[in-house]
Specification:
Number of helices: 1
Strand order of the largest sheet: 2-10-9-4-5-6
Distance between the termini: 40 Å
Number of strands: 10
Helix content: under 10%
Oligomer: single chain
Radius of gyration: 13 Å
Length: 114
């Protein structure tokens, strides 16, 4: 079974930056597109960005221009570069396939607060 492990979260001040990583077992991200999701307290999980096998990227309006998704097939790893972070970005961030879902990982907590 595919295993996903998110890392890179933490506490950051508004306007700061974080780079999240998602390592997958096997060849998951070599074969499939990838996506980042987040879930804030009391909110439903939402997709914030995805990248297809062909490199097409998409971003939620709330993060467009601030976040960048990328995929390193050699490392079987997906990244989310987050700049100009806002308190509303506070959430647990999860990675998974773009359309083929594996078992969810533990997520990584991102807290944006002054």
């Amino acid at each position: 079974q595919v295993q996903l492990m998110e890392s890179g979260g933490g506490l950051v001040q508004p306007g700061g930056s974080l780079r999240l990583s998602c390592a997958a077992s096997g060849s998951f991200f070599r074969l499939y597109g990838a996506a980042w999701y987040r879930q804030a307290p009391g909110k439903e999980r939402e997709m914030v960005s995805h990248i297809t096998r062909g490199g097409y990227t998409n971003y939620a309006d709330s993060v467009k221009g601030r976040f960048t998704i990328s995929k390193d097939n050699a490392k079987n790893t997906v990244y989310l570069q987050m700049n100009s972070l806002k308190p509303d970005d506070t959430a647990v961030y999860y990675c998974n396939g773009q359309s083929i879902l594996a078992t969810w990982g533990q997520g990584t907590q991102v807290t944006v607060s002054s």
